[in-house]
Please model this.
Amino acid sequence: MIRFDILTVFPEMFASPCGCSLLKKAADRGFIAIHLHDIRSHAEDKHHMTDDAPYGGGGGMVMKVEPIDRALQSVPATGEDVPIVLMTPQGEPFCQKMAEELAGHQQIILICGHYEGVDERVRTHLATREISIGDYVLTGGELSAMVIVDAVSRLVPGVLGNCESASSDSFSMGLLEYPHYTRPAAYRGWEVPDVLLSGNHREIEAWRRRESLLRTRKRRPDLLKERALTIEEKKWLDMFIDP
Ligand code: ADE
Model:
């Protein structure tokens, strides 16, 4: 069981992604719990302001530190070593390895930034780490927090039906996945490779490993550099020269 506490000014944005498919099933079955905390309800001034003009001038608004701090204080800590993550394009790039590491925690707190930025004191005094989901700028941290919740949740034992599915994913093996097919065996003349219809499991297994390797070399050669190759893999790479 892993608990996510999400601090946001738009809690309603989470209703749909968390309310259907695998995440809903995972929550209904008690594998994950998602708690939303509306930062605005922790703003104590008359207008419930969560942002303000930047010191030093300039355009845009900056999210205030006090409502975020108060929202954080309202989150019950279920243990020690709970990551307090600020979602920001300035953070560490998110990847499968990081998802695996986060899945080892009992609780994760995610702070969704907004507007032009977040008061630097959130970074320096409240957050314990900062994560980016990619080199582009979103309108806020909500979508990126959902990405973290999704990628981490599917690694929680029991969330995926078949316990092999997460460990044979793209990236967790350091390779992209092999091609998948289902019925019909031919559609508009587009045929499923014979080997998959052969019933020869050893050959199918070898074909999948090879396709996975060749596809990775073609699309993501950077991943191969980070991975030690087996003798069989080296042989395949020499045998199948990219067109
Ligand atoms: N907030 C805005 N853009 C973001 C990004 N790329 N990653 C994480 N949080 C963000």
